[in-house]
Structure formats: C-alpha cells, structure tokens
Amino acid sequence: MQSCLNCKKEFKYTQVLSSIVGQFKWKIVSCNYCGRDHKITLFSKFLISTSIIAFPIVMVQYIFPDPPLFAVALLWFAAWVITILAISPYFIKFKE
Question: Low-confidence residues of the chain, pLDDT below 70?
Fold first, then answer.
C-alpha cells in the first residue's frame, strides 16, 4: 500500500479503494495525518481501466466463443472485476 508523499504514513485500504470506485469517478485521497491531497497517477488510472475492461473482453473472445457459455463468461467477468478492484489499492500510485 502506498504511503503519503509528505509524512510517509500509509493510507488505509478502504480510503484508497473508495478513491477508485467512489461514485464511479477518480477521487482525491487526503492524508489523515497531515491533510495533504494526493491524486492517482495517469498510468495507474490507465492500468486499472485497461485491466478491468480491455483484457477481459479479449479473453472472453478466446475462452468463451460459444453463445451457450455467455452466462459463464459474465460470471467470469464479474469475478475478474471484483478481483482487480480488491487488489488495485496495493498497486496504485499517487502524485501530489
């Protein structure tokens, strides 16, 4: 988990996760100790967005090409999104 760039205190998991999925937009993370605001870097936004949207779309075409497996593909996609969102606070980077 990334820490504050000013005071080096680590952000809480829920604080970072809510900055990613809070109201379906990228939010600023404020440090609880020093109050400094941090923005998610453009590369982190791109990485999370791509891994949630583009990668599963490509994989579904190769793994589940038949229409009867569409329900399985939707379940796989939902599990993928939940997994990526759950681990993303550990890989996200911030800037001031």
Answer: 23-24, 64, 66-68
Is the pTM higher than 0.85? The answer reads no
DSSP code for 10:
B
Distance CA 15, CA 95 (A): 16
C-alpha angle 4-11-94 in degrees, rounded to nearest 5: 50
**H or E segment at 95?**
strand 94-95
Do 75 and 60 touch, CB atoms closer than 8 A?
Answer: no
How many residues make up the chain in this entry? Answer: 96
Amino acid present at 80: W
